Amino acid sequence: MVSGRYKKMSKLAALSFTILVIALIFSALLTFCSPPQTTGSEILIALKPEAISLLIQPQEPDPMHTGIPTLDALNRKWNVRRMVRVFPYVSPDDEAAARYGLAGIYKLVVPRATNLTAMVRDYRADPHIDYAELNQPYEIEE
């Protein structure tokens, strides 16, 4: 009788251990397979060179009145709160900045509940936008 009870407890312990191992593996997979972290409320856009010259205030554009009607409409649609130059000290007249498009890169700040993936898709479709992407941190491994 003792050996039967011992076998039941042994099976129960083995089952519990197996469930624990599966839970740990699943947790690790979720950690490694989760979508990239973003800042939660920002995307980056790069204006095409010809669009930069259309901006009313390139240093600190009003998101609702940029001088580019299609961009204004997108900014209204996505409730853009701020439009911040990523490289504020780069002059649009700088030859290297113009070659690499640094003068036209902006961070768009939106409410936290915004669907950033759909937002990026909309901005990529705008003819004045060179690219749009999530503002997410990247780590460089040495």
**How large is the share of residues in beta strands?**
5-15%
Largest sheet composition: 4 strands, antiparallel
Distance between the termini: 61 Å
Radius of gyration: 25 Å
Average residue pLDDT: 83
Q: Name the helix and strand elements from N-terminus to C-terminus, one letter apiece.
A: HEHHEHEHE
User: Looking at the structure, what is the overall shape?
Assistant: elongated
Provide an overview of this structure:
It is a single chain. With 142 residues, the chain is of the alpha+beta class. The protein folds into two domains: 1-34; 42-134. It is built from five helices and four strands. It has helices at residues 2-33, 49-52, 69-77, 95-100, 116-124; strands at residues 42-47, 82-85, 105-109, 129-134.
Summarize the structure.
By secondary structure, the chain is an alpha+beta fold.
Topology record:
Blueprint: H1 2-33, E1 42-47, H2 49-52, H3 69-77, E2 82-85, H4 95-100, E3 105-109, H5 116-124, E4 129-134
Antiparallel strand pairs: 1-3, 1-4, 2-3
List keywords for this structure.
single chain, about 140 residues, 2 domains, about 15% strand
